[in-house]
Design goal:
The protein has six domains: about 90 residues, Immunoglobulin-like; about 100 residues, Immunoglobulin-like (Sandwich), CATH 2.60.40.60; about 100 residues, Immunoglobulin-like (Sandwich), CATH 2.60.40; about 100 residues, Sandwich (Immunoglobulin-like), CATH 2.60.40.60; about 100 residues, Immunoglobulin-like (Sandwich); about 100 residues, Cadherins (Immunoglobulin-like, Sandwich). Helices cover about 10% and strands about 35% of the residues. The protein has seven helices and 52 strands. A four-stranded mixed beta sheet has the order 7-13-12-9, with no helix packed on it. It has a four-stranded mixed beta sheet with strand order 15-22-21-18, with no helix packed on it. Strands 23-25-28-27 form a four-stranded antiparallel beta sheet, with no helix packed on it. A hairpin with a 5-residue loop joins strand 38 and strand 39. Bound molecules: 2-acetamido-2-deoxy-beta-D-glucopyranose (3 copies). The site of one 2-acetamido-2-deoxy-beta-D-glucopyranose (NAG) has 5 residues, from strand 40 and strand 41. Keywords: Calcium, Cell adhesion, Cell membrane, Glycoprotein, Membrane, Repeat, Signal, Transmembrane, Transmembrane helix. GO terms for molecular function: calcium ion binding.
């Protein structure tokens, strides 16, 4: 029976399904299974007992015999994950006691959805993860079992991942993400995907979780420069510290991987000194002297690096632009030095080259010479210039030139340079010596000592050195038939003319020589000048008494009529002096007289006149001693005696014989004296006649005797000659007067007998002619 029941109950159990969860659910009919009348059930107090005191989920409907679910049954609660879930009950019947075993097998229904332990699954995956890398995901759980537990996983469609599902050892399933396409943080930093787990129940249930993937950075980006080639222009001379450019490179990585530092990579050592780069900012500044003339272009490599050393490079091409910072340079290539003064205009003096290190306009050079020099620059090929003269030169006017050449470039502002060339002009013997005077006059007093300097001539020659060295000489000639060299000599160097011998004014008074000044050039140039030598007089001759014949040797005695009135001319002393001028300017004085006060003598005329009327008491014989003195310094003088006889008749004179010439030791002399006296008397008479005639004309009764006396000129110096014209002083020193003067008409001319006999006859000139 129990066996039967058991079988029966077993059957019934199998009909219990998921739906037993609901109360009053009929799972079987016990009455039918036990083939018992329903009424008997209640009669026999059928009831269900549990073996242990656990909860009773079933009950028997006594009215129908149905086995019903008394309490909601949850398989998951009762059995968890156990595959078989059996509840054991006993059906107890009384009267008779019968116990039947009821095995209630609980079957699962899909009443639970799969569940993930976390609704969000956080994953951190580096972007460097390679394809095929797997990431295990949390397993989802479903409390149902069997078919109703996790059956599969699915992943939201995405670009990077696919899903692999694996069984676990305990029959579960888990999924793993498989990277199918590499990640790139720089493109997508985070990825969200929905993972769905589904069970195998019907209807199917599912649970989801969000997979949140954070893509971790990997240093997979190199810094990138904004340009691969930076082109910069920079003016030369840019001061140190000036920013040229700021380069920048960006690195898509983050953190240290994205921190960029800059440095120069590839550059010459020379360039490295000129520029510096800021490691962090990429600012490139000038650090040295930029000189266009040294380098026109620089190339630098720059490198940007991130923290872990990923680097990239770029290039900077820097063009230096010219600045007009170089003055032109003037180079004297050649100079013909010194330049002869006779160079033709247009003669090339030198060659000049001008240079400028700058370029373009800045090296266009203009060259010029200052205005006031006779030079100019002729442009030639390629900044070469020839310096030529523009006009004739004269060393004597300008012996050197400072030629200033100025070169100016075409920059803005322009720069210029000057070069001063000192050009010496060399001498050519083109100037003859020139005497300082057109003619020279020299005065030398007679009786000079030989060797006395007469005068000095001087000539100038402006030429240089020997071309201007003057040598003096005298032109050979003759003076009065004598070589001039026996009169004068000249110092060839100084031009001082010396007398070679002593001169005598009375012999000749002047002569002319020619002096030559010659320079030492080759050929020499010369000029000449006339030197007139005047010999000046010295008082070396004392006066000579012509009348009365001196030394008392004269037989002559002047007759003075007794009736002579005061002021009458009674006689005249005639004296000459071979000297001239003051030295021949004679003055007369009575130094001794018989009767002082009776006669006076004209100081310069030599005329002896009565001072008072002659009276009877006067001594008949009157003697006068007269001194004749010239005006020289010191003066020379001569004396003579004049005998006067106051008488009307020669016969009255008793001592006449006494007065005759006693010492006639020579017959010839006596005859000569007689002849002379006769002639003199004749002339005197003649003159008295003329004077009388003149006197009548002029009605000057007091003058008995006014006039010129002609006297024999015995013992005159041989060259006592060359007198001309009326007795005026012709020049301060050159007197031609020679006779006593003071009387208006006392002009005489002696015709000299040059025969040498020393004997001549005076000729009355003026009045006769
Ligand atoms: C030229 O210059 C020199 C030196 O400065 C100077 O001695 C000379 O007198 C100058 N010459 C002229 C002609 O200016
Ligand atoms: C003098 O002049 C000549 C040309 O007449 C010249 O050759 C010479 O060099 C000059 N002498 C001096 C010292 O200047
Ligand atoms: C003196 O100079 C003149 C012209 O200056 C010349 O004709 C004459 O020949 C010269 N005489 C001598 C002796 O040199």
């Amino acid at each position: 029976f129990i066996k039967h029941l058991s079988a029966a109950v077993n059957r019934k159990i199998l009909t219990v399904s998921l739906f037993t969860k609901s109360r009053q659910y009929v799972t079987g009919n016990i009455a039918k299974d036990l083939r018992m009348d329903v009424k008997q059930l209640s009669a026999r107090k059928a009831r269900i007992d549990t073996e242990d005191s656990s909860k009773r989920y079933c009950d028997v409907n006594l009215n129908t015999g149905d086995l019903i679910v008394a309490e909601t049954i949850d398989r998951e609660e009762l059995c968890g994950s156990r595959m078989s879930c059996i509840l054991n009950y006993e059906l107890v019947l009384e009267n008779p006691l019968e116990v039947h075993r009821i095995i209630l097998q609980i079957q699962d229904i899909n009443d639970n959805a799969p569940r993930f332990p976390n609704e969000r699954i956080h994953l951190e995956i580096t972007e460097s993860a390679v394809k095929g890398q797997k990431f295990r995901l949390d397993e989802a759980h479903d409390t149902d079992i069997g078919q109703n537990s996790i059956n599969s996983y699915s992943l939201e469609k995405n670009k990077h991942f696919v899903l692999n599902v694996h069984d676990t050892a305990d029959g579960g399933k888990y999924a793993e993400l498989v990277l199918e396409k590499e990640l790139d943080r720089e493109q997508q930093k985070e990825i969200d995907m929905i993972l769905t787990a589904t069970d195998g129940g019907s209807p199917q249930r599912s649970g989801t979780a969000v997979i949140h993937i954070t893509v971790l950075d990997a240093n997979d980006n190199v810094p990138v420069f904004s340009e691969s080639v930076y082109k910069v222009t920079l003016a030369e001379n840019t001061p140190s510290g000036t920013e040229i450019i700021r380069v920048s490179a960006t690195d898509a990585d983050e953190g240290p991987n994205g921190e960029v530092t800059y440095e120069f990579s590839r550059m010459s050592e020379k360039t490295a000194k000129l520029f510096s780069i800021d490691k962090t900012t990429g600012q490139i500044v000038v650090a040295g002297e930029i000189d266009y003339e040294k380098d026109k272009k620089y190339e630098m490599g720059i490198q940007a690096k991130d923290a872990s050393g990923l680097a990239s490079t770029a290039k900077i091409i820097l063009d230096v632009t010219d600045v007009n910072d170089n003055s032109p340079r003037i180079i004297l290539k050649s100079l013909n030095k010194p330049l002869p003064e006779n160079s033709e205009p247009g003669t090339e003096v030198g060659i000049i080259n001008a240079q400028d290190k700058d370029s373009g306009e800045n090296r266009q050079i203009r060259c010029s010479v200052q205005q006031n020099v006779p030079f100019k620059l002729n442009p030639s090929v390629k900044n070469y210039f020839s310096l030529v003269t523009t006009k004739a030169l004269d060393r004597e006017k300008e012996s050197d030139y400072n030629i200033t050449i100025t070169a100016t470039d075409g920059g803005s502002p322009p720069l210029s340079t000057s070069l001063t060339i000192n050009l010496l002009i060399s001498d050519v013997n083109d100037n003859p010596p020139v005497f300082e005077q057109q003619s020279y006059s020299a005065y030398i007093s007679e009786n000079n000592k030989p060797g006395t300097s007469v005068c000095s001539v001087s000539a100038n020659d402006p030429d240089w050195r020997q071309n201007g060295t003057v040598l003096y000489s005298l032109v050979p000639s003759e003076v009065n038939g004598v070589q001039v060299s026996s009169f004068l000599s000249i110092n060839g160097d100084t031009g001082v003319i010396h007398a070679v011998r002593s001169f005598d004014y009375e012999q000749f008074r002047n002569f002319t020589v020619k002096a030559v000044a010659r320079d030492n050039g080759s050929p020499p140039l010369s000029s000449n000048v006339t030197v007139k030598v005047f010999i000046t007089d010295e008082n070396d001759n004392s006066p000579q008494i012509l009348y009365p014949v001196p030394d008392g040797k004269s037989l002559m005695t002047e007759m003075v009529p007794k009736a002579t009135l005061s002021g009458s001319l009674v006689s005249k002393v005639i004296a000459v002096d071979a000297d001239s001028g003051q030295n021949a300017w004679l003055s007369y004085q009575i130094v001794k007289s018989t009767d002082p006060g009776l006669f006076s003598i004209g100081l310069h005329s030599g005329e002896i006149k009565t001072q008072r009327d002659i009276s009877e008491s006067d001594n008949m014989k009157q003697n006068l001693v007269i001194s004749v003195k010239d005006n020289g310094q010191p003066s020379l003088s001569t004396t003579c005696a004049v005998n006067l006889l106051i008488s009307d008749n020669l016969s009255e004179v008793p001592e006449l014989k006494d007065m005759t010439y006693e010492d006639s030791n020579s017959k010839l002399t006596s005859y000569l004296i007689i002849a002379l006296v006769s002639v003199s008397t004749f002339f005197l008479t003649f003159i008295i006649l003329i004077v009388a005639v003149k006197f009548c004309h002029r009605r000057k009764p007091r003058l008995l005797f006014d006039g010129a006396v002609a006297v024999p000129s015995t013992n005159l110096p041989p060259n006592y000659a060359e007198v001309d014209g009326a007795g005026t002083l012709r020049s301060s020193y050159n007197y031609d007067t020679y006779l006593t003067t003071g009387s208006r008409t006392s002009d005489f001319k002696f015709i000299t007998d040059t025969s040498g006999e020393g004997f001549s006859y005076p000729t009355l000139v003026n009045e006769f002619i």
